[in-house]
Design goal:
74% helix, 5 strands, Trna Endonuclease, Chain: A, domain 1
Length: 350
């Protein structure tokens, strides 16, 4: 066999050997690889199970926290909903009450349509306001004058303050409800005429200084809106006219302020009256003290005289005692001096 053939055989044998080794290695690898993969998969599955369990715990905890928050939000929302329902119920009751009050005001407005009813209502409000602010002795309702006129009320201070209630409502409402300036001006003139009529009547009937009133009177307007229109409408022309007539328009608010001043004045008069009583009592005490001082000085004079008599008698007694001692010590008879013959006289206390 030639060397080439031998070389080929060797290469063939080497290739077969290598192939056999590769096949054996592949078989061994094929037998070992499933075990390794199984171990890797088992380890990976264990890790994944742990991670999944941890993630499940986190998700469960987060879901529990979310459920708690949702429950709190639902509870808070329920409370707010209940509060809203309660407030809506209160609003409904208030709306119903306002509707009833509006209905009552409408009925009252219909009742006050007649001027006589309005006048009685204003007098009632005036009497209630005076009763709330003044003592019963400081005012009088339906006060009558010598001529037969009767004013709604008078306040008794030093003199009388007349108060008459007026309620010029008709033309005021027409003026407020006017659709245009022309109608408003027409009703405004009528309203001014009504107010001037009331002012003239109060000035002529109730301002009577000769019967004990002050030289002014109050015109009580039960409505603040009417008073505002009278005081500020047309730059206060009606108010100026009232002042020239010595009539002071007042509303419930402004009359309350005036009454507070009156209360302070009444307190000042009471203090002055008490001060005069105290001064009279002090004068009486001073007079009685003068009498006591005279008696005291007289007693002092008598005591001074008695003291002088006592000292003189004490001197005479001392002299008499000395003579007695001398007479007792001398064995011979001694002629008794004239001083010794006189006994001490009693003290004249008069």
């Amino acid at each position: 066999m030639s060397s080439d053939a031998l070389s080929k055989v060797r290469r063939l044998m080497t290739a077969l050997l290598i192939l056999l080794i590769v096949l054996l290695a592949g078989a061994a690898l094929f037998a070992w690889l499933p075990r390794v993969l199984d171990r890797l998969l088992t380890t990976r599955n264990s890790e994944m199970d742990g991670r999944l369990q941890a993630m499940n715990e986190i998700v469960d905890r987060r879901l529990a926290e979310l459920d708690t928050k949702v429950d709190r939000r639902l509870e808070h929302a329920t409370k707010q909903t209940n509060a809203i329902h309660e407030k809506l119920g209160a609003v409904g009751e208030a709306t119903q009450l306002l509707a009833e009050q509006a209905k009552g005001l409408g009925e009252l407005q219909q009742i006050l349509r007649p001027p006589k009813a309005r006048g009685g209502f204003g007098e009632l409000l005036l009497g209630q306001l005076l009763a709330d602010r003044l003592p019963p002795t400081a005012y009088s309702l339906q006060y009558g004058f010598a001529g037969g006129e009767r004013v709604d009320a008078v306040i008794k201070v030093d003199r009388l303050v007349p108060i008459d209630s007026k309620f010029p409502l008709d033309n005021f409402e027409r003026m407020a409800a006017a659709d245009n300036d022309i109608e408003r001006q027409q009703h405004e003139k009528l309203f001014a005429r009504d107010v001037k009529t009331h002012i003239d009547a109060i000035a002529s009937k109730y301002i009577r200084p000769d019967e004990g009133t002050y030289d002014f009177a109050f015109m009580y307007l039960p409505s603040e809106a009417i008073y505002y229109e009278l005081a500020c409408g047309k730059t206060g022309a009606l108010l100026e006219y009232a002042h020239t007539k010595r009539v002071l328009p007042v509303s419930p608010t402004t009359l309350t302020a005036y009454l507070q001043v009156v209360v302070l004045g009444l307190r000042g008069l009471q203090i002055e009256q008490h001060a005069q009583e105290v001064m009279a009592y002090c004068a009486q005490l001073q007079k009685e003290f003068g009498k006591f001082k005279e008696d005291f000085e007289l007693v002092g004079t008598h005591l001074d005289r008695a003291q002088k008599k006592f000292l003189e008698s004490e001197k005479h007694l001392g002299k008499f005692e000395t003579k007695l001692e001398q007479a007792a010590e001398s064995p011979a008879e001694l002629e008794v001096p004239a001083e010794a013959r006189e006994l001490p006289r009693a003290v004249d206390a008069a």
